[in-house]
Each structure stands twice: as C-alpha cells, then as structure tokens.
From TrEMBL:
The keyword Glycoprotein does not apply. GO terms for molecular function: DNA-binding transcription factor activity; transcription cis-regulatory region binding. Residues 52-71 bind DNA. This is HTH tetR-type domain-containing protein. Residues 1-22 are annotated as: Disordered. It comes from Microbulbifer agarilyticus. Residues 29-89 form the HTH tetR-type domain. Keywords: DNA-binding, Transcription, Transcription regulation. Gene3D superfamilies: Tetracycline Repressor, domain 2 (1.10.357.10).
Length: 219
C-alpha cells in the first residue's frame, strides 16, 4: 500500500502522497524525467484516463520493472507530473507577492492578477488542464490540489497581513485559503466551459473584492 504524506517539503516543495524513490544520480534523474515526459506526451494523445503503466514505460524507453523503482504506481507518476506544474506556477506567484501591498486596493488588484495568471498558466498547459479536470474524480489529486491551495494562501497571507489587525489574521488566513481553492475550482470550470470562461473568472473576482476584505479591517 502506498504511504500517505500530508505536508509540504522544504521551501514549499510539494511532497508526494505516494512513496516515491527520489533519484540521486544524474542517470536516475534523467530516467525519472524521461518517465514524466512520456506520461506528459501520452496524456496529450489519450488523456490521463487512458494511461497505462506499460505504455508509459515503452514511451520512456525503460522496463516496467525499472519504472517501479521510482514510482510505485500510475497515480504516483501523475502526482509527480502535477507537482511539477504546481511548483512551476509558484514562480509566478512568488513574483506577484514579492513586494508588500500598499493598501487594500493594491491587495485586491494583485489577487485578481493572480487569478488571471493562474488561468493563463493552465490554459497554455493542455496536460495540466487534463489533470485539473481529472482531479474531480481522483482523491489523490484532490488532496494535492488542496495542499497547493494552502501553500498559495500562506504566501498571499504573508504579503498582505500587515494591512489588517492581528486579531483578524486567523480569519483572514482561512478566507484566503478558500479564495485560492475557489480560484483553482473556477479555473477547472472555465477550462471545461471555454465559451463562458470570461464570465466565470469575472464572477470569482466579484467574490474576491474590496468589500470582502474590508470585513477583516475592524479592530
């Protein structure tokens, strides 16, 4: 049975919920990269629902037995690929929250900017679009999505908390977590309904508003 892990690794690196052997040598890292690249290519061709371990191994040029040295099952491979996308977006998140906010309007503007960046990032990544949609039916990916939302909320909280009285920080933190997870869900919905994507994102922005944040300003 795979081992479950419920926390982030050092420096916010997402930790797999399935026990995975971390590659230490360059040859092993190259093999893991080849496996993930093969998984990515097959998702583009067939979707994640049609993935088979044997096909991933064949595309990567490794044996199934060799692949199991690094990943205990197909879910672990998909999780590892999803983590790479999530960690890549964290670079965008980091640049947006690098400077402290000036005021409440700046805070709202940057939260809306993050939502736009989040959507644009995943719109350009057909593989992760597939994984986001698949998350609705995959408990492991759901858990990873929640973990990612918590991390993103922590980063946003750190850059805007000084605008608010300290006694309201716990409630603000919870609100931001809900916002981050709502953004993830909204992106999934917008990607599934491209004709309505603009209105979906705009409606989420109405929820993440100055009025919503003003509730946490009272001393």
């Amino acid at each position: 049975m795979s081992k479950r892990v419920e926390k982030s690794g050092p420096e916010g690196q997402l930790v797999s919920r399935n026990e995975v052997r971390a590659p230490r040598q360059s040859r092993s890292r190259a093999r893991v990269d080849a496996i993930l690249q093969a998984c990515k290519e097959l998702i583009v061709e067939r979707g994640s629902a049609g993935l088979k371990v044997q096909d991933i191994a064949a595309r990567a040029g490794v044996t199934a037995g060799s692949m199991y040295q690094y990943f205990p099952n197909k879910t672990a491979i998909i999780e590892a690929l999803a983590r790479r996308y999530m960690e890549e977006f964290r670079g965008t998140l980091g640049s947006t929250v690098a400077e402290p906010v000036r005021d409440l309007d700046d805070c709202v503007a940057r939260l809306h900017q993050l939502l736009d960046q989040f959507f644009a990032f995943y719109e350009c990544e057909p593989v992760f679009r597939d994984l986001l949609v698949s998350a609705a039916a995959d408990k492991s990916l759901q858990d990873l999505d929640i973990e990612d939302s918590r991390f993103n909320a922590e980063q946003v909280f750190a850059f805007c908390r000084d605008l608010f009285p300290e006694k309201n920080w716990p409630a603000l933190h919870e609100f931001l977590f809900v916002c981050m997870h709502l953004a993830s869900s909204a992106v999934q919905l917008a990607l599934s309904l491209p004709a309505e994507r603009v209105s979906i994102i705009d409606n989420v922005k109405l929820l993440i508003s100055r009025g919503a944040l003003e509730r946490f300003m009272s001393s």
